[in-house]
Amino acid sequence: MRIVKDHNAAKTRIATLNVGTLTGRSCELAAALENRRIDLCAVQETRWSGNKSKDIGHGFKVVYNGSPKTRNGVGIVVSQRFRDSIAEVQRFDDRLMKVVVTTAEQRLHFFSTYAPQTGCCEQVKDNFWMFLD
């Protein structure tokens, strides 16, 4: 028996990126993700306030959560392939969020996290680990 590998089968490509800031750079990010054929990308340090989703070009949509002070912030960028398959979004705080994508076979849970650095106060660190558990 010979097994033939299907090179045309759809593959899901996942990435993570600390963007430093998304302000004024979202279209650049979308172009880079399209060039690398990324389907889902967790982003950290977006520095956007609020909890929304919006189109960023090239068929990509970003679902994000940030603090009112435009610090920290996380998001998940979703390609055209999965943008209509988002079943659930959970925004825990400006350092942790989850997006659930439904496919024909299963429900996929994607997290974007931005862990507190050593200089952060203990309360911020404790809250982060509490949400993560």
TrEMBL record:
PANTHER family: EXODEOXYRIBONUCLEASE III. One of its GO terms (molecular function) is double-stranded DNA 3'-5' DNA exonuclease activity. This is Endonuclease/exonuclease/phosphatase domain-containing protein. Coiled coil: none annotated. One of its GO terms (biological process) is DNA repair. It comes from Ancylostoma ceylanicum. The gene is Acey_s0757.g2100.
